[in-house]
Amino acid sequence: MLNRRRVLTLGGLTVGGAAAGLLLPKGTPPHVQPLADAHMGGQLAGTDMAGMMHHTGAVPAAAPPPPVTPFTTAMPVSPVLRPVARSSTTDFYRLAIRPANLEIFPGTTTPLLTYGGLFPGPTIRARTGRAVQIVYTNGLADGSNVHLHGGYTPQDSDGYSMDIVSPGASRTYRYPNLQQGATLWYHDHAMGFEADHLYRGLQGFYVLEDDAEAGLRLPSGEFDVPIMLRDAHFDENAQLVSDWPAPRETVLTNGKIQPYFPVAARKYRFRLLNAANERLFKLNLDGAELIRIGSDGGLLPAPVPETELSVASGERTDFVVDFGKVGVGKQLVLSEATAGPVLRFDVVRSAPDPSRVPAVLRPLPALPPATVTRDITMSFDFSGATPLALMNGKTFDPDRVDYRIKRGTTEIWRIHNADAAPLDHTFHVHLVQFHVVDRGGKPLLPVDAGRKDTVFVAAGESVAVQATFGDYLGKYVFHCHFIEHSVMGMMGQLEIVP
Question: Per the database record, which ranges form the Plastocyanin-like domain (predicted)?
Fold first, then answer.
């Protein structure tokens, strides 16, 4: 039975490394029938919200997964998706959401859910000021949709949780790309399905580039490499085990287990995404310098040299490593504090290096003064037979608007984690980037710098963020980005009004 002790165990595993989840198992979301047609801006009609948010079943522990010899598989880099057409203002794409059997463990395959048959999905590289239009076709047996995480996007293309693309249907998403360059990502966000769908592989990079950033001469082209970290639990047949309380002890790096990546003796830019459903990664590179240059919303004001990077579920961080300081023939191992080695870099050749990391990257403009301050609390309620995941004391209701916000206004949100250790949360709001302005009176964390859309909130902690809500009108959600918490109801809804 799902009770307080088991949820607290979940929290401890999440922070400690071997994450566990309150996943809705495959097959649970029939509670959300029928699925409306995607072209009608479909809503989940007749939704049994309680039924789809709570899963109380437990399953026997699976046998250990097949052994893997470390650093014998090369880390793949997902190919860049090519447009099917171009106009003077827009790039047009098509992408199928479909199952695929892919090799994670050498010599065998694992059934996954994918974008275009790839895991991670193909990388979409876009440019500021040039629009992107993508037609997604849902080839799954379940409803799906797509959220551009970190995107400044009109409501009808946000991947709003209740806008479901029915099986066999297609939906067109339009991204104006009016924000500065940033490492964004796209993933499933269909209410009741998202935890299972993300866990099974529906994730990919959306890299937005701009001319100002290009002028800085940061590492680019083949030396600009997206890296997606996430975790999973597999059985002895290399099949994903997603039923709670299975631990997720296997870390995947671009979909592979402990791969290696050959590099030249020069500077590289890595775009690191934590795409785990519930995890805090703490990473080091054999003590080598990691020059952090970017956060969720783009470049930092100035580079920050570090030896450890902390990144929670949904967060991104861009960093530069100068392998020219290491030398040809040497190796560096990227390790996670609790999972151990996750990737080895092999310096295999010399190469010219015209790139640089300038002392000034991109100033962080001050936001207008806030006219509204709100308090938002994330918590679990253990008073009943089944725990409830709450945002401001309520589970998510698509018919309830929690905040109506006048477009163009600036607000401060004080985000509170009312749960005791070890129940941590992350907070993500759609539509806007924000500045972290306070962490309970304590110094801000290095990961708080720059423009953010996701922030880690430890048990018992409060974090204040400031955001300006732009011109797009309509309903958007905010939620815990420990996705199982969100599925259980830890999500609210805002509406931008004239």
Answer: 104-212, 383-496
Of 214, 236, 264, the last residue of a domain is 214
Residue 349 lies in a domain: no
pTM of the model: 0.90
pLDDT tens across 434-491, in order?
999 999 999 999 899 999 999 999 999 999 999 999 999 999 999 999 999 999 999 9
* Tally of structural domains, the chain: 2
What value, to the nearest 5°, has the Cα angle with vertex 335 and ends 329 and 341? 75
pLDDT digits (tens, 9 = 90+) for 293-326: 999 999 999 999 999 999 999 999 999 999 999 9
Could you tell me the two tokens for 5?
Answer: 């002790």
Per the domain annotation, does 416 fall within a domain? yes
**Which token pair is 28?**
């649970």
Residues β-bridged to residue 427: 455, 480
Distance CA(65)–CA(180), nearest Å, equals 42
What's phi and psi for 75, nearest 5 deg? Answer: -70, 120
- Which of these three, 176, 199, 214, is where a domain ends? 214
Q: In what order do the strands lie in the sheet with 340-350?
A: 260-265, 340-350, 331-336, 280-285, 309-312
Residue ranges making up the domain that contains 199: 36-54+67-214
Please report whether residue 182 resides in a domain: yes
Report the relative pairing of strands 309-312 and 403-406 from DSSP bridges: unpaired
Q: The domain spanning residue 470 has which CATH number?
A: 2.60.40.420
Of 22, 20, 428, 25, nearest to 232 by C-alpha is: 20
